[in-house]
Amino acid sequence: MSSFKNLSVAELEAMLQKGGLRLVDVRTDAEVARGKIPQGESIPLHLIPLRLSELDKNAPTVFYCQMGGRSAQAAAFAAANGFVDVYNLQGGITAWAQAGLPVA
């Protein structure tokens, strides 16, 4: 059975420095307008089933939201649809910001 891995903020920061991953923000447009992780792209959760084909199934893909709940749903959906290297940011952008990391 396909699954995803939960990432800590520190793990995501290291992966972003290394490069080669897709960071997907699944929050609403209104939430994204209040701030996002700079390297992230926005695909709201309700559009994930329609837009999943835009992402590379074989590339590392990290989903995040406000706290980690919605992004876990997106990560599970991606894993169930053949994505092999899928992650969920634990604590979401809230944990990212609390760690003092940049929010755009």
TrEMBL record:
Highest rank taxon of the organism: Bacteria
Segments forming domain Rhodanese: 17-104
SUPFAM superfamilies: Rhodanese/Cell cycle control phosphatase (SSF52821)
Name of this protein: Sulfurtransferase
